[in-house]
Amino acid sequence: MMVKVTHPSLYDLPSDQRMNLVNRLLSPNLFVVTQNGCHELQKCVGKGNYGRFELAKVGRTYLAHRVSYEFFKGRIPNGLIVMHYCDNPKCINPNNLSVGTIFDNNQDKAKKGRGNAPLGCKHGRSKLTESQVLEIKRLLREKSFSYGEIGKMYKVAKGTIQRIAEGRTWSHVQ
């Protein structure tokens, strides 16, 4: 299933605004070349360490890696995102950029071990210990208490117990 992805495109801008973005992209001292070949932005870096160009005239923000991709490689197909081979969100080197789906990007992250939250009690917001989860799983197997009753015993929500029962959380604890 393709997820709808909407980002402003370089190609949808009037030519004067398009040239404004391209001139910014090519401006001296905007980036440095790192040892691994990244063209790492030194300016215009915002949320998530992604480069951003604001165009006040049109009231839009353009992600620098998307501008780079479109300038050097062409229009980004609908429904696709621009991914970094180098895993560096500040990089605008077109040789380090490719297009893919959100699923492709998530697969790439998982394969490279990035973006994974800590499991179980190592997670900062965990309210349960592994020994408590083992006990909860035993109670669930016995079917003598409801999710809500078990939740009250351990001072967690009924939904927490349900997710444990369904294997959506704490599946690493047997």
Automatic annotation (TrEMBL):
<dbReference type="InterPro" id="IPR044925">
    <property type="entry name" value="His-Me_finger_sf"/>
</dbReference>
<dbReference type="Pfam" id="PF13392">
    <property type="entry name" value="HNH_3"/>
</dbReference>
<dbReference type="InterPro" id="IPR003615">
    <property type="entry name" value="HNH_nuc"/>
</dbReference>
<protein>
    <recommendedName>
        <fullName>HNH nuclease domain-containing protein</fullName>
    </recommendedName>
</protein>
<keyword id="KW-0614">Plasmid</keyword>
<feature type="domain" description="HNH nuclease">
    <location>
        <begin position="62"/>
        <end position="106"/>
    </location>
</feature>
